[in-house]
Each structure stands twice: as C-alpha cells, then as structure tokens.
Design brief:
Largest sheet: 2 strands, antiparallel
Helix content: over 70%
Strand order of the largest sheet: 1-2
Oligomer: single chain
Strand content: under 5%
Distance between the termini: 13 Å
Structural class: mainly alpha
Shape: globular
C-alpha cells in the first residue's frame, strides 16, 4: 500500500517540477523567446491588487467585529491566503524582506546563525492567523487592524518595485522553482496555517491557476512552445487535483 502512495506522489510532483526545471534551462539557452515582460508585469500587479482587496475586505469585517468562527469570515481569510500564495514566488524572489513582513513565521527566527543575533518577529498573515484563530475566539481588534495596515503598506512597496523591475524570463522560472520547493517542503504540512489548515486549498488554487499565469505572459506560441505549455498545464492540473483529494481525507499522503 505504501508503495502505491509513493508512486502516486511521484507521478504528481516530479512531472511539474521537471517541466519547470527543463523550461528554465531552455530559456537560459535561448537568445530570444516569446516571453512578454510587460504582460507578465500586468499579471504580477493584478495579483497584488487582488490580495490588497481581500485584505481590505478582511479589515472591514474585523472593524465590524465579525466573529472569526463564521463561515463568511473564514472564507474571507481563505481568500487572503490564496491570493498571497499566488504572489508568494515573486515577492520571495524579488523582495524577500517584504516576504517576511507579509508572511513571517509565528516562531521567531534568527537573522543569522549566531547565538546573539537579533530575532525576526512574526509578521503578516501568519501572525494574524495566530492572533485570530488560536484561543477562545476573541482577538485584539486594534492589533489586527494595525498588522493588516502594515501588510498593505508592504504590498504597495512591492507593487512599486514591480513597476520598475526588469522582469527576466529565467528569473520567473527560478522563482517558481523555489516556490515549489517551499510549498512541498514547508507549506503543505500546514506549518504556515496551523489553526485554519488552508495549505491544500492554497496549493490546489495555485496549481489550477499556474497555467493561466504562463499563457498570459507569452504571445505567439510556436508548436514547440505550445507542446511544452500543454505538458506543464496537464502536470499542474494533475497536481491540483491530487492536493484537492488530500484536503478531503483525515490522513493526507504528505510524502
């Protein structure tokens, strides 16, 4: 039975990682591709705007004292997490310091491997989850509103940098490679969302939308490019389906 689980897992994870790795290698070896920097920039900015809007909705609900256990509130929270997952690869790649501010872990980590180093306090979505969803259901409204405001300020800083950044095709692939490793090594275990357990939903949404992100960043695909895209799309959607299945069982096949 374990061998079946292992084979199924490898069928899901390895194809999509392989496609991204190979595609990135081909990009670095090509002189001119069909990658459209401005189209990609538009996609990145749309992702920021979507997250910003979802944070605004959550802020409004908190100001109205909407209870955190309500379906409406949890749906708003899940939306914030899903939109963050969509931009996470690029925030982490281009502005890692803002990634810490937007989704800093609830356990403080040292800046350097030094016993006397200063510690980075938790920030952003992970801190908000800790404050809202752990405990009896009561939270400090002022503290949460302040943290949401900080998130939106950092989002604006990232948005400004996206407008001025040279977006290279190989950097996009590299960012996606790193995000895949982060997700399957850390996020999928619900380490980032220990109280709300949204990891599988985030991964499902991310991999469902990844093909659309790719196709929106390119134009005039030739036959070879189209074939590579269809392979990536199939692998990504297969991965999304697998994560959706794991979200519905009591004991997920984390391996």
């Amino acid at each position: 039975m374990k061998s079946i689980y292992i084979r199924n897992s490898l069928k899901v994870i390895f194809p999509i990682l392989f496609v991204i790795l190979i595609a990135g290698k081909d990009v670095r070896n090509s002189e001119q591709g069909v990658f459209d920097q401005e189209k990609c920039r538009i996609q990145l900015l749309k992702g920021v705007d979507s997250l910003n809007h979802s944070l605004s909705v959550l802020d409004s609900m908190i100001r109205k004292n909407t209870h955190s256990s309500s379906t409406e509130f949890r749906n708003a929270w899940h939306t914030c997490r899903i939109y963050y997952r969509a931009i996470s690869p690029f925030v982490s790649f281009y502005r890692p310091e803002l990634s810490q501010q937007l989704n800093g872990p609830p356990v403080a980590l040292p800046e350097e491997e030094d016993e006397v180093a200063a510690f980075l306090p938790p920030h952003g979505l992970q801190l908000i989850e800790e404050k809202i969803f752990q405990g009896p259901g009561n939270y400090n409204q002022t503290e949460i509103i302040s943290e949401l405001a900080l998130c939106r300020t950092n989002l604006e800083a990232y948005k400004s940098s996206v407008k001025d950044t040279l977006i290279r095709e190989q950097d996009i692939f590299h960012a996606l490679e790193l995000e895949m490793l982060r997700y399957f090594l850390l996020t999928v275990t619900n380490m980032e969302t220990p109280s709300t357990h949204t990891a599988f939903k985030e991964g499902n949404s991310y991999h469902n939308n990844l093909p659309e992100f790719f196709i929106s960043s390119y134009s005039d695909l030739n036959e070879t490019d189209r074939s590579a895209y269809e392979t990536l799309k199939a692998a990504s959607l297969s991965c999304a389906d697998f994560l959706n299945e794991q979200d519905k069982v009591n004991h997920a096949d984390y391996f």
